[in-house]
TrEMBL record:
<comment type="similarity">
    <text>Belongs to the class-I aminoacyl-tRNA synthetase family.</text>
</comment>
<dbReference type="InterPro" id="IPR001412">
    <property type="entry name" value="aa-tRNA-synth_I_CS"/>
</dbReference>
<feature type="binding site">
    <location>
        <position position="186"/>
    </location>
    <ligand>
        <name>ATP</name>
    </ligand>
</feature>
<keyword id="KW-0436">Ligase</keyword>
<keyword id="KW-0547">Nucleotide-binding</keyword>
<feature type="short sequence motif" description="'KMSKS' region">
    <location>
        <begin position="195"/>
        <end position="199"/>
    </location>
</feature>
<keyword id="KW-0067">ATP-binding</keyword>
<dbReference type="InterPro" id="IPR002306">
    <property type="entry name" value="Trp-tRNA-ligase"/>
</dbReference>
<feature type="binding site">
    <location>
        <begin position="195"/>
        <end position="199"/>
    </location>
    <ligand>
        <name>ATP</name>
    </ligand>
</feature>
<protein>
    <recommendedName>
        <fullName>Tryptophan--tRNA ligase</fullName>
        <ecNumber>6.1.1.2</ecNumber>
    </recommendedName>
</protein>
<comment type="function">
    <text>Catalyzes the attachment of tryptophan to tRNA(Trp).</text>
</comment>
<dbReference type="InterPro" id="IPR024109">
    <property type="entry name" value="Trp-tRNA-ligase_bac-type"/>
</dbReference>
<dbReference type="GO" id="GO:0016874">
    <property type="term" value="F:ligase activity"/>
</dbReference>
<dbReference type="Pfam" id="PF00579">
    <property type="entry name" value="tRNA-synt_1b"/>
</dbReference>
<keyword id="KW-0963">Cytoplasm</keyword>
<feature type="binding site">
    <location>
        <begin position="18"/>
        <end position="19"/>
    </location>
    <ligand>
        <name>ATP</name>
    </ligand>
</feature>
<keyword id="KW-0648">Protein biosynthesis</keyword>
Length: 332
C-alpha cells in the first residue's frame, strides 16, 4: 500500500470548513486504500503565541474532531507530533540543508510575518515549512493530502528530499502533493477572493464546524454571491456562487452539473437555503461525536499513545538512516 501523511494544527479549537473539505475529508477516504499517518501538529502551533492550557485542550479537541470526521485508529495511525521526538531531530537536519533565501521565498511566511510585523514573527514561524519537510520525509510518504495553500511546502519537501538523496545517497521517498481540484481551496463566504482561513477570514466568512448549527446556517444564507441571478459554476466570473456549488457538491455527492440543472431558473436564495440545511445535517452529528470523544479523555489519550508508538517505529528507522548517511557518530 502506498503511504500518505498529513497534519493539522490544533490552534483554533474548531476545524473550519476549508480544513475539512480541503484536507480531512481526503484523509478519511485514503485510510481505506493507503498506509495512512495523520497527526496533530502541536509543534507547528507554537510558532505563534499560544496559551499552554488552551494548547493542551485544543490538541485533544483536534484529535476528537479527526475521529468524529471518520478517522479510524484501526485503519490509520493517528498521533500527536510532539510525542514523536524524531520530528524535531530531523527538522534540525533539514534546516541545515535549506538555503536561507529558499526559506525566505515561502509565501505563507511572507504573508503571516507581514501581518504580525517582522520583528514579532519568530524564527520558528520562519522555519515551520522545514519542520514540515521533516514531518513528511520521516514516514517516507508517497503522497501528502493537503489544501492548495500547502503546495509550495510540498515542493520544498521534494527539493530537500532530492538534495539529501543526491548528496548523501538514496534515503528519502520524494513525495507528491495530493490536492483535489474541487476542494483544494475553499473560499471565504464573504470575500470569495481569499481562502477561508482562521486568521484572515472575518467571523461571517468563516464556517467553524463546531459552531452552533443555527449560526452556520445563517452564515451560508448570507454568503456573498453576485448581482447576476444565474446559478452556474464559473470560478472567475462567479466565485461566490461557485464556492457554494463546490461545497454543496462535495457534501452531498451530487455533481456540480446536476446542481446547475436542479437550480435552473431558481434564485440564489433557494440554493443557499438548501445548502444551509445540508450543512446543518453535516455539522450536527459531527459536533455530537466530537463531544463524545472529548468526554472520554482516557480512550482518546490511549488512541494517541498507540498511534505515537507506531509512528515512532517508522520515524526512528528513517532518522537513524539519515544520521548514518550524514556521518553522525552513533552513540555506543
Ligand atoms: N480554505 C481552505 N481550503 C482548502 N484547504 C484548506 N486548508 C486550510 N484552509 C483551507 C487545509 O487544511 C489543512 C490543515 O491546515 P492547517 O493546519 O494550516 O490549519 P489552519 O491553520 O487552521 O488553516 P488556516 O485557516 O489556513 O490557518 P491560517 O489562517 O493560520 O493560515 C491543510 O492541509 C490546509 O491546506
Amino acid at each position: 500500500r502506498p503511504r500518505v501523511l498529513s497534519g493539522i494544527q490544533p490552534t483554533a479549537g474548531s476545524f473550519h470548513l476549508g480544513n475539512y473539505l480541503g484536507a480531512v475529508r481526503q484523509w478519511v477516504a485514503l485510510q481505506e486504500s493507503h498506509d495512512a499517518f495523520y497527526m496533530v501538529v502541536d509543534l507547528h502551533a507554537i510558532t505563534v503565541p499560544q496559551d499552554p492550557v488552551a494548547l493542551r485542550a485544543n490538541t485533544r479537541l483536534a484529535a476528537a474532531q479527526l475521529l468524529a470526521a471518520g478517522l479510524d485508529p484501526d485503519r490509520c495511525t493517528l498521533f500527536v507530533q510532539s510525542h514523536v521526538p524524531e520530528h524535531a531531530q530531523l527538522g534540525w537536519v533539514m534546516n541545515c540543508l535549506t538555503g536561507f533565501g529558499e526559506a525566505s521565498r515561502m509565501t505563507q511566511f511572507k504573508d503571516k510575518s507581514a501581518k504580525q510585523g517582522v520583528d514579532r514573527a519568530t524564527v520558528g514561524l520562519f522555519t515551520y515549512p522545514v519542520l514540515q519537510v521533516a514531518d513528511i520525509l520521516l514516514y517516507q510518504a508517497d503522497q501528502v493530502p493537503v489544501g492548495e495553500d500547502q503546495r509550495q511546502h510540498i515542493e520544498l519537501t521534494r527539493d530537500l528530499a532530492e538534495r539529501f538523496n543526491g548528496r548523501f545517497g538514496e534515503t528519502f521517498t520524494v513525495p507528491a502533493p495530493y490536492i483535489l481540484k474541487e476542494t483544494g481551496k475553499i473560499f471565504d463566504l464573504q470575500d470569495p477572493a481569499i481562502k477561508m482561513s482562521k486568521s484572515a477570514s472575518t467571523p461571517k466568512g468563516l464556517v467553524n464546524l463546531l459552531d452552533e448549527p443555527k449560526a452556520t446556517a445563517k452564515k451560508i444564507k448570507s454568503a456573498v454571491t453576485d448581482t447576476d441571478t444565474v446559478i452556474r459554476y464559473d470560478a472567475v466570473e462567479k466565485p461566490g456562487v461557485s464556492n457554494l456549488l463546490s461545497i454543496y457538491s462535495t457534501l452531498t455527492g451530487e455533481t456540480v452539473a446536476e446542481l446547475e440543472k436542479k437550480y435552473e431558473g431558481k434564485m440564489y436564495g433557494a440554493l443557499k437555503t438548501d445548502l444551509a440545511e445540508v450543512m446543518v445535517e453535516f455539522v450536527t452529528p459531527f459536533r455530537t461525536r466530537t463531544q463524545e470523544y472529548l468526554g472520554d479523555p482516557e480512550t482518546l489519550d490511549s488512541i494517541l499513545a498507540k498511534g505515537a508508538e507506531k509512528a515512532r517505529t517508522v520515524a526512528a528507522e528513517t532518522l537513524a538512516q539519515a544520521y548514518e548517511k550524514l556521518g553522525l557518530l552513533p552513540a555506543k
